[in-house]
Amino acid sequence: MVFDETTEVEDGDIKEINITHVVKEGAEKADPSQFELLKVLGQGSFGKVFLVRKVTPPDNNQLYAMKVLRKATLKVRDRVRTKMERDILADVNHPFVVKLHYGELILLFVCVCVCVCVCVCVWRCSNTLCCVSVFKQQLHGKNILFSDGYILKEDIGMGSFSVCKRCIHKATNTEYAVKVIDKTNTDPSEEIEILLRYGQHPNIITLKDVYDNGKQVYLVTELMRGGELLDRILKQKFFSEREASAVLHTITKTVEYLHSQGVVHRDLKPSNILYVDESGNPESLRICDFGFAKQLRADNGLLMTPCYTANFVAPEVLKRQGYDEGCDIWSLGVLLYTMIAGFTPFANGPEDTPEEILSRIGSGHFTLTGGNWDAVSDAAKDLVSKMLHVDPHQRLTAKQVLKHLWIIQRDKLPNSQLQHQDAKLVKGAMAATYSALKSSQPPPELKSIESSFLAQRRVKKLPSTSL
User: Fold this and answer.
1) Which of 65, 137, 305, 429 is disulfide-compatible with 344, CB 3.0–4.6 A?
2) Residue 67 annotated as binding site
3) What is the mean pLDDT of residues 49-65?
4) Does 116 share its domain with 248?
5) Do residues 354 and 388 both lie within one domain?
6) Residues above pLDDT 70, as percent of the chain
């Protein structure tokens, strides 16, 4: 099979690459639909290596490693080198050189336009490779509709650019949740990629299916049957400081994991922390809705893994990352304050204006006396004050929170009942707090094309015309 020639432009030069399939003698032509993505094995400068399972005969159920390169990050010379690599591996057969089983240059849409890939190379994995807690994933393009596999049911949640509904998988009659995202208002690529990479964590919502009909993206996830964290706490007849510590420990260790991977959630309000079942066990908590989450990237847009961060990320990028991590800790501090005090730290109720709420937040003042505060431990007060510090760079990190005495010495905390305000009042105040924060974010500033990094780089490359 031969595709049409692809014309590429680089630094003013036009070059052509003839994109063709390469199939070794005796091997079949590869197709992305023949492989099931299991998990990410590694990441390089231009793409990732996935653990995949072949789903079609004759080698179905065989594990392979699939190298996927991002077309957007590859220049012409990089694509030529990739083609050369593929051709060399196809011709070489040596016990100490990786064996290429399937290799073809194809245009492949992975994960609903998260990235356009130019090359897929597949190597067979060792039979001794341990594949524990395999992350089964099905990624569907525009030719397969959500309604082909699922029955859509009632609304269970609303977002700024999305709606969450219950749905039923036709083949298994299993209930799931589906987040329907309007692509005209937001790009779900980052959210999908984060869920694909980190959804295997036990306290992060699991992504089951992805569909794209051109206008909307459907993210099928596990159904959160236990409801929102704050709802359950406010409905409990008995909730103690010790239980609050267990809840914060579970959520913070999940946030610490995300931060260690260069991911910031940026929207850790209580409505995005839910129970997967009715047990009320802190380990059944899931962090959901990664619509505002971001991954640490270098100036060229490539993801930065933790081991490369210190040497290759600009200081201002790291500073921004630290700020975003601090915002996550602040959100957890608001949650902790509310669990202990029984009311929110910066809003008295849903009738508070955004200006009033933002003024209190900006001042950094909140009360740690009266009510429940007269009965809780000093360690709790210390932790709250350090998580809600007005300067995000002076707040505790997630790792420091996990090492705080209030967390590690939970068994010594008081087990007395904590009182709380009316549930409707508390939830209204919490909603008002995050609504005020969202309204305070300035709109993006549009600048001239000449001020962009790309335009400035091109100007530098132009030959001088001065005499």
Assistant:
1) 429
2) yes
3) 76
4) no
5) yes
6) 64
Considering the domain boundaries, does residue 451 fall inside one?
Answer: no
* Domain identity same for 364 and 253: yes
Residue 46 has pLDDT above 90, yes or no: no
CATH code of the domain in which 81 resides: 3.30.200.20
Catalytic residues: 267, 269, 272, 289, 309
pLDDT band at 58, cuts 50/70/90? Answer: confident
Q: 328 and 404: one domain?
A: yes
Burial of 296 (0-12, 13-18, 19+ CB in 10 A): buried
Residues 147 and 118 occupy one common structural domain: no
- Does residue 331 share a domain with residue 427? yes
Q: What pLDDT is recorded for position 130?
A: 28
- Boundary of a domain, candidates 204, 221, 238: 221
On whether 447 is known to bind a ligand per the annotation, the reply is: no
Q: What is the pLDDT of residues 314-362, one digit of tens each?
A: 565 556 667 788 999 999 999 999 999 999 999 888 888 889 888 888 8
Classify residue 466: in a domain, yes or no: no
Q: Please give, one letter per residue, the 3-state secondary structure of the chain.
A: CECCCEEEEECCEEEEECCEEECCCCCCCCCHHHEEEEEEEEECCCEEEEEEEECCCCCCCCEEEEEEEEHHHCCHHHHHHHHHHHHHHHHCCCCCCCCEEEEECCCEEECCCCEEEEEEEEEECCCCCCCCCCCCEEECCCCCCHHHHEEEEEEEEECCCEEEEEEEECCCCCEEEEEEEECCCCCCHHHHHHHHHHCCCCCECCEEEEEECCCEEEEEECCCCCEEHHHHHHHCCCCEHHHHHHHHHHHHHHHHHHHHCCEECCCCCHHHEEECCCCCCHHHEEECCCCCCEECECCCCCECCHHHHHHHCCHHHHHHHHHHHHHHHHHHHHHHHHHHHCCCCCCCCCCCCHHHHHHHHHHCCCCCCCHHHHCCCHHHHHHHHHHCCCCHHHCCCHHHHHCCHHHHCHHHCCCCECCCCCHHHHHHHHHHHHHHHHHCCCCCCCCCHHHCHHHHHHHHHCCCCCC
Average pLDDT, the chain: 76
In a shared domain, residues 34 and 60: yes
More confident position, 141 or 119: 141
Cβ neighbours of residue 241 under 8 Å, at least 6 residues apart?
340, 376, 377, 380, 413, 414, 415, 416, 418
Q: Which domain holds residue 386?
A: 227-439
Residues 184 and 329 placed together within one structural domain of the fold: no
Least confident of 62-66, 82-86, 212-216, 327-331: 82-86
Q: How confident is the model at residue 98 (pLDDT cuts 50, 70, 90)?
A: low
